[in-house]
Amino acid sequence: MTAPLPPLPGPSDPGEARTSLTLAAVGGPEPLRADAARNRALLLDAASRLLDRCGAADLTMESVAATAGVGKGTVFRRFKDRTGLLIALLDHREALLQAAFLSGPPPMGPDAPAAERLHAFGPAVMRHERDHHELILASRTDPLRTYAVPAQRLRLSHVTLLLRQARAAGDPEILAHTLLGSIDTPLVHHLTCERGMLTDQLEQSWHDLLIRHGVAC
Length: 217
Fold this sequence. Notes:
Layout: H1 34-54, H2 61-68, H3 72-79, H4 82-103, H5 114-131, H6 133-139, H7 150-165, H8 172-182, H9 185-194, H10 199-212
């Protein structure tokens, strides 16, 4: 059973209301008992050390079990498969990003105007995912799953709400999908690594998209 998906803000939401969204995990894990949480932390610590040492491509359930000093079955029971392990590794990093845009200081946090928050959001997400692109790409085994996980729904809800508050032109949810698609990790990786584009160019494109829809700082 996974955590409920954050709802998308509806047309009746007050235009200037503060965001009431809450933190959402990448894969929506269930709450854990204290002993299970300790075991999970032990395994994730081992996986993080392996990730730093050998990269996501060589991270296996067997190597995590050996590093943590437990049986392979323990790792499978906790994470089910390698994708589940990779998603769990992303959770902590994602929580830090979410805290920044849900409750952090300006320009990302709720005390800044909606337009300013939107212009800060895209570059921050791009930098965050650039730092973890190998892990993110390795966890993307099902392209459609990206749109269903709670963390992605939270981003969509957040951007949609800010677009409404900023009175952006066009359908806010479709525009939110377009904006988030422009900074999706595989695309950014392709444009920067394969096409040689600079991150600054992609960040400027985020700002340009917002300005074209009437959202200027």
